[in-house]
Amino acid sequence: MGGFGFDVAHMLAGLLVLASLTMLYQDRLVTLINVLALHALILSASVAWQAHLQHAPDLFITAAIALGFKAAFIPWALRRIVVRLGLHREIETSAGIGPTMLAGMGLVALSLEVMLPVTAAADPVARQDIALALSVVLIGLLIMVTRRNAVSQVVGFLSIDDGISLAATGARGMPLVVEISVAFSVLVAFIVIGIFLFRIRERFDTVDLGVLDEFRGERR
Amino acid sequence: MAVLVLLAIAGLLATGVAGGLRCRAADGRVVVYGASLGISVLLVGVGVAALALPAATLRLPLFLPWIGARFRVDALAGFFLIVVNLGAATASLYGLGYGRHETAPERVLPFYPIFLGGLNLVVVAADAFGFLFAWELMSVASWALVIAHHHDPRNMRAGFLYLVMANLSGLALLLAFGLLAGPAGDYSFAAMAASHAAGGTAALALALALFGAGAKAGLIPLHAWLPEAHPAAPSHVSALMSGVMTKVAIYAFVRIAFDLLGATPWWEAVLVLALGGATAVLGVLYALMQRDLKRLLAYSTVENIGIVFIGLGLALAFRADDDPVGATLALTAALLHVFNHMLFKSLLFMGAGAVQTATGTRDMDQLGGLIHRLRFTSFAVLVGCAAISALPPLNGFVSEWLTFQAILLRPDLPQWGFKVMLPADGALLALAAALAAACFVKAFGITFLGRARSAAAADAVEVDGFMRAAMGGLVALCLLGGILPGVLIDALAPVARTVLGARLPEQLTLPWASIVPVGAARSSYDGLLIFLFVAMATSLTVAAIHRFASHAVRRAPAWDCGFPNPSPVTQYTADSFAQPLRRVFAGSLLGAHEVVTLPPPGDTAPARIEKTLRDPIWEYGYAPVVNGVDRLAGVLNKLQFLTIRRYLSLVFLALIALLLVLALWQ
User: Fold this and answer.
1) Residues 114-133 of A with CB under 8 A from B
2) pLDDT, tens digit (0-9, with 9 covering 90-100), for A149-188
3) What is this structure's pTM?
4) Fewer CB near the last or first residue (10 Å), C or N of chain A?
């Protein structure tokens, strides 16, 4: 495997982490969804590059799924939901940008620190991919923890899935059927969450989770 | 042979299904108990054959895929097959009659054969998975039988306690097998026995096996569930649980300690000896304090488990000291007591069930005078009481005598622990035997002698033929086991050879069916001669009285023993009979306390005596654990009511913490 192939794979994975970090400080829902689309686009490119490197034509299908599904359909649908719920002008107050970004950077450092020594024997491309994928997953979790709006939690959840895909495609011999079933389960989760969003909205006139907590009488 | 056992077990499970389908039909009882009886008799035959034949193994593609299940019928399994199925056969015969009075047959009939199947499966399983599966099957089926009469909240509490302890016991055995399998992870008994773990691993595995088997057998301080759960079940199931299931627990201990494990450190033998001695004495002390006939019997089971564990501890001690003869003697004594206790404890529980059927109560203070109404039952219970009190020429004497022989065999063991423990255990065993005799004098005397204390006892009617036949069979076996012990000791020789590689000298060649376990210079016992002497002396006395006594009939007022009031209340009660022993022993050990309230002069109110008993083991051993778990659950309960974001944060922080540990570890 040439140095160039490795550099490009590394760059794409790094871009994915960068997009994740970008997500952390978006306080408008529409831009957040745009970044999610960008995130999935980068993932798709990364997977396609892996397909080229590993001479694995089935990974092209994965890349196509990522492109069509995660980069086009889901952001489009989310945008529709946001517009229909009337949230597109809303500004979400989350934890301050500075501390969040610092935490995100800390997570990237932590995942590199953990993963690089553990995978010392592995193929260098897979090694970088797994380390960066872990940071994408952790940042996705951080988004879910810090956000209060249900839609942005969905976005965080989807970015976690992107991270998992990155790790899975970096490792050789990932069967296509697993990838398809993962994509399918994400779709199902997305549909369920979308329906839930509308039901919650119907009931409480908001998708702010804080209001739901108040409704349960357990705001702390 | 193994195929035959497995087919029989499958037959038992199928009988359970049939019992579930036909439990409401009139013939459901006949189908279930009849089939169980037939299969048990068949399995007794298999067990006898297994003692003589070489071990048979079988591997079936059951349970875990690719690993399968292994079964093995060797001499040890054969002996316990006999114990299990002899008990099961008599209990099934008894059930044919006893089940007629069952108010909720749909809660008994489906589980009874499954319980039997579980008991048999434990004995023949030859890998950890099959063993634990059978162990849990046995526990769950017997739990269902314990709560058969679930309208009584005490039964539900007993069932819950039993389930908790059964879980702990299963967990301990699981961990023991995990240690034995080692890092290679081969869970077949053959591989475990071949690896012969030693040192720290062996010590820990033996301790876990002691906990797991001891909790199931009723070793103090793990006995708390036993006197609650055993009496709660229907009487023939109580007989099975007390007579058979505790023996299967002992099988588990013997299998792990003697077959799978190599030599263990000597101090563990001291531990087993200490627990055995404490269990024997405390168990019988508890039994003496009881008024409920079945609870008394259940506590007496605890005592006998203690005696068996003294024997097993001795065998461990001799093995640690490389003395195969002594180890064989001690193990034979323990296994013989297992067999004997199965016989007389089943008999006594069946007798208690007969009393309950005839009178509707198990409270001894409501009984009395039953010897006139239940002639056969009282004879059978009398034999059982004499056997469990270790009176010659019955079988209980032989095994306790052998245990004493094992204690007296080597007073010169070099380790200091044995120098202290062996004399102490001898004294404890003697004390337990004496107290057991007192306990069963009380059980028989209060229940069957004197005058009836209630109308139900006065109008009791003898039980039916099935129940009498079951008790009669056990009486005959108790007597035969006592007068021909050599047969049993010789039958145990292949077992000892399997697990210890040595055997006792052959007994059947000796004249007059006497037994000489170690050497004629040391000791010998001849049950047949004693039996003949007792029989001849009795018949001579009877003949002499009939020949020489006056035949004139003379009517006179009965001597009133100084109690001119003929009311039955003036008789000894269960509690008043036990009072001297309670004052001597139970004051400090069980916190027994009496308060006498005398009315002031001139007041005609009756004087009152109030007795309180505490169970220090429950108060200091179990109650703190229960309270601790309760408090912890109360604290953790708050976690049930967090917001979604808090749950996510918890997950996130846990993940980060684990990753940090991983990062800092390197």
Assistant:
1) 114, 117-118
2) 778 888 888 888 888 888 877 766 666 666 666 766 776 7
3) 0.81
4) C
User: 3-state class of A20 per DSSP?
Assistant: helix
Burial class (CB in 10 A: 0-12, 13-18, 19+), B265: middle
B655: which chain A residues are within 8 Å (Cβ-Cβ)? 138, 141
- Residue A218 has its nearest CB partner, among B643, B660, B662, at B643
With CA atoms as reference, report the closest residue to B450 among B628, B574, B349: B574
Cα dist. A140→A134, A156, B33, B160 in Å?
A: 10, 5, 63, 45
Q: What is the pLDDT of residue A163?
A: 85
| CB of B426 closer than 8 Å to CB of B408 | yes
The helices-and-strands tally (H runs, E runs) of chain B is: 28, 4
Cβ distance of A111 and B659 shorter than 8 Å: yes
**Residue A104 structural domain:** 3-215
d(CA A162, CA A131): 14
The answer to whether residues B313 and B276 touch, using CB atoms and an 8 Å cutoff, is yes
Tokens representing residue B642 in the block: 């967090």
Q: Are β-strands B69-73 and B593-597 bridged in parallel, bridged antiparallel, or unpaired?
A: unpaired
Strand, helix or coil for residue A208: strand
Say if the Cβ atoms of A141 and B651 lie within 8 Å.
yes
Residue A220 forms part of a structural domain: no
SS3 category, B502: coil
Q: Distance, in angstroms, between B663 CA and closest chain A CA?
A: 5
Test B663 with A209 for CB contact under 8 angstroms: no
Return the pLDDT at A176. Answer: 61
Token readout for A121 is 């024997």
Per-residue exposure over B16-52, b if at least 16 CB sit within 10 Å of its own CB, e if not: bebbbebbeeeebbebbbbbbbebbebbbebbeebbe
Chain A residues lying within 8 Å of B645, measured CB to CB:
145, 148, 209, 213
Give the containing element (helix H, strand E) for B496. helix B493-500
Which contacts qualify for A90-99: CB closer than 8 Å, 24 or more apart? A90/A28, A90/A29, A90/A149, A91/A27, A91/A28, A92/A27, A92/A28, A92/A29, A92/A147, A92/A148, A92/A149, A92/A152, A93/A27, A93/A148, A94/A27, A94/A146, A94/A147, A94/A148, A95/A146, A97/A24, A97/A25
Residue A74 lies in a domain: yes
Q: What ipTM describes this predicted complex?
A: 0.81
**Measured between alpha carbons, how far is A167 from A155 in angstroms, rounded to an integer?**
19
Q: How far apart are CA B28 and CA B95, in angstroms?
A: 12
Closest to B329 in 3D by CA, of B512, B473, B560, B492: B492
**A199 against B244, higher pLDDT:** B244
In a domain, A35, yes or no: yes
CA–CA distance, A169 with A47 (Å, rounded to integer): 6
Q: List, for chain B, all residue ranges whose pLDDT scores fall below the cut of 50.
A: none
Distance from C-alpha of A176 to C-alpha of A169, rounded to nearest angstrom: 10
pLDDT at B234: 92
The DSSP code sequence of A92-157 is ---S-HHHHHHHHHHHHHHHHHHHHHHTTTS-HHHHHHHHHHHHHHHHHHHHHHH--BHHHHHHHH
Q: How far apart are CA B42 and CA B85, in angstroms?
A: 9
Angstrom CA distances, B84 to B118, B303, B540, stand at 11, 20, 40
Cα(first)–Cα(last) distance of chain A, in Å? 55
d(C-alpha B155, C-alpha B36), whole Å = 26
For B389, what's the count of Cα atoms within 13 Å in the CB-facing half-sphere? 18
Structural domain count of chain A: 1
